[in-house]
Amino acid sequence: MKKTLIYIIVAAVLIGLGAYKIVDNKKKQEAEVKEVAKQVDKINVNVITVSRADINTDYSANGTFIPKQETKQSADIAGRVVSVFVKEGSRVSAGQVLATIKKDAIEVDVTQAQNNLQNAIIDNQRYENAFKTGGVTKQQLDNSRLQLKNAQAAVRAQGVKINDTSVRAGISGTINKKMVEPGAVVSTGTALFEIVNINSLKLSVLVDESQVGRIQLGQEVDINVNVLPEEKFSGRITFIAPKSDASLNFPVEIEVQNRGNLKAGMYATAVFKTNHGAETQNMLTVPAEAFVNGVSSGQLFIVNNGTAKLIKVTTGKVYGDKVQILSGLNGGEQVITSGQINLDNGSKINIVK
């Protein structure tokens, strides 16, 4: 009997302990669920602490080098190419003969024109003498003089044709392409050579509308060439487009003297110095991405006791991805830079480290 009673007591104690453990575990689970619910209710955000700093206002733009001069030298007269005197890579001077076109037929025409001129000179002389004695009329003399002028013009025209059989370089530079060989028949206007002058090059870049007002013609620009990282280059602005493209960017050209290692088509970065001195020193700024609905709204979220507080600030100038703050912040505040789209004033937040 006593043993049975003991068993009953032990069983009751064990059951009591089990029930207590279940209740305790349930309380812990409920606490954990509440904590998780609190975290789930919070919105993850990134923040930056507002501080004062000097702003680097240098502006960079990427582009490619283009020759200062380039031309496609074409044939001025139709015919068969007799000789080609240059090859790709040849250095040429303006006016240098690059190729010749067959001129046999033109030389025959030149001879005929010269004969006609001699006859016209003789005829005109007779009319001049006859007119002095009244042997011919003034009209006949005028016709004779006209025939002489036409004969002289015909000789000059044939001389031009003879000259056109020599294809000459229009600019000094390097033969980049040769598109003709001896024996080829060409037409007037057929491109025979491509000549480029890379003694100086132009770096063509696009400058944003917010920056174009800060640069000027003649300004010196530092240039970094991707394939020549160890070398330093500089140039001067020679052209600023008066009109932007569809993306509100302005084409700008910078002339660079070639030391022999630059090539047209190379990729480079122009660094425009736009230092504003004291204007950009000790400036309070925030990232442009922090603004709600764009910089023009002037609205930001700051951290306020674990919640997001929407405030209004007065903005100044924009320097790249930094926006000057004139009032509304004093420095030291934590400004939310991402996650704003999910926030309302007073939303609970979780700062992501």
UniProtKB/TrEMBL annotation:
<dbReference type="GO" id="GO:0015562">
    <property type="term" value="F:efflux transmembrane transporter activity"/>
</dbReference>
<dbReference type="InterPro" id="IPR006143">
    <property type="entry name" value="RND_pump_MFP"/>
</dbReference>
<comment type="similarity">
    <text>Belongs to the membrane fusion protein (MFP) (TC 8.A.1) family.</text>
</comment>
<dbReference type="InterPro" id="IPR058792">
    <property type="entry name" value="Beta-barrel_RND_2"/>
</dbReference>
<dbReference type="Pfam" id="PF25954">
    <property type="entry name" value="Beta-barrel_RND_2"/>
</dbReference>
<dbReference type="Pfam" id="PF25917">
    <property type="entry name" value="BSH_RND"/>
</dbReference>
<dbReference type="InterPro" id="IPR058625">
    <property type="entry name" value="MdtA-like_BSH"/>
</dbReference>
<feature type="coiled-coil region">
    <location>
        <begin position="103"/>
        <end position="130"/>
    </location>
</feature>
<dbReference type="Pfam" id="PF25989">
    <property type="entry name" value="YknX_C"/>
</dbReference>
<protein>
    <submittedName>
        <fullName>RND family efflux transporter, MFP subunit</fullName>
    </submittedName>
</protein>
<dbReference type="GO" id="GO:1990281">
    <property type="term" value="C:efflux pump complex"/>
</dbReference>
<feature type="domain" description="YknX-like C-terminal permuted SH3-like">
    <location>
        <begin position="284"/>
        <end position="350"/>
    </location>
</feature>
<dbReference type="InterPro" id="IPR058637">
    <property type="entry name" value="YknX-like_C"/>
</dbReference>
<keyword id="KW-0175">Coiled coil</keyword>
<feature type="domain" description="CusB-like beta-barrel">
    <location>
        <begin position="204"/>
        <end position="274"/>
    </location>
</feature>
<feature type="domain" description="Multidrug resistance protein MdtA-like barrel-sandwich hybrid">
    <location>
        <begin position="76"/>
        <end position="196"/>
    </location>
</feature>
